[in-house]
Amino acid sequence: xxxxxxxxxxxxxxxxxxxxxxxxxxxxxxxxxxxxxxxxxxxxxxxxxxxxxxxxxxxxxxxxxxxxxxxxxxxxxxxxxxxxxxxxxxxxxxxxxxxxxxxxxxxxxxxxxxxxxxxxxxxxxxxxxxxxxxxxxxxxxxxxxxxxxxxxxxxxxxxx
Amino acid sequence: xxxxxxxxxxxxxxxxxxxxxxxxxxxxxxxxxxxxxxxxxxxxxxxxxxxxxxxxxxxxxxxxxxxxxxxxxxxxxxxxxxxxxxxxxxxxxxxxxxxxxxxxxxxxxxxxxxxxxxxxxxxxxxxxxxxxxxxxxxxx
Lengths: 160, 140
Hints:
The structure holds 2 protein chains of 2 kinds. By secondary structure, chain A is mostly helical. Chain A has one domain (21-154). Chain A is 74% helix and 0% strand. Chain A has helices at 20-40, 44-55, 58-80, 87-117, 123-154. In chain A, helix 2 crosses helix 5. The longest helix of chain A is centred in the C-terminal third of the chain and has 32 residues, at 123-154. Chain A is elongated, with a radius of gyration of 21 Å. By secondary structure, chain B is mostly helical. Chain B has one domain (4-139). Chain B has 5 helices and no strands. Chain B has helices at 4-30, 39-42, 48-65, 70-100, 106-139. The radius of gyration of chain B is 18 Å and the shape is flat. The two termini of chain B are 15 Å apart. The chains are: A mainly alpha, B mainly alpha. At the A-B interface, helix 1, helix 4 and helix 5 of A face helix 4 and helix 5 of B.
């Protein structure tokens, strides 16, 4: 049997190679927006976050936001590099933000419990600040860390 | 709200970026050289990552001095350390590429280090804002 003619062979698109620089500009912008919201709305913005945490929406909103941002970033990188998205990376990006936000929400729960158990003045305000800090750290972690994991896993991929 | 964090980050930008650039210009002037380096040329091998590492160390130190709960300090410190290490890694990678003769692109190195340094500075600013707010709450 003869080999297929080169002109008829479908060109193989390479798998997406993630570079942290592509991700970090977007994460930095998200971080700056959060900072600006805290600076320009020092009372109302933290109040919204604390209220949504008390109602149980905060974790869900953070998961959706992180997943949407991760998907957007991954598709943007694959479009810019003209490369093929892989199932393994997509699965990693689909699960890691949920695991990170979920894990940090448990940590926030224990932080709040521990703060309330202490005999300190201005307890409610302290708890609110802890919630604000955890929300920021959770958001940045959930967007940045999955790409960091993928970037580190790429090191083990054999180079052609 | 106080602007202490703005002065703090401004100090790092001045000492970490502007002073080296001004020193290079001053050296060129002193030696009668035509050298007029731009900030991009001065940091084209990923040296911005080193400035980022210094910023990160300072923020982690401030976090350790704060009255945030241990869990919050741990999460913030680990995240900052990871971002700072990746920023510094750009400089290391470029050094290794140049030393071994592997393909190296100054444009890519500059873009990587600039974007990661942007992330470091952005996170440092927000963490300092949060520290400033917490210090006020704790002082009440």
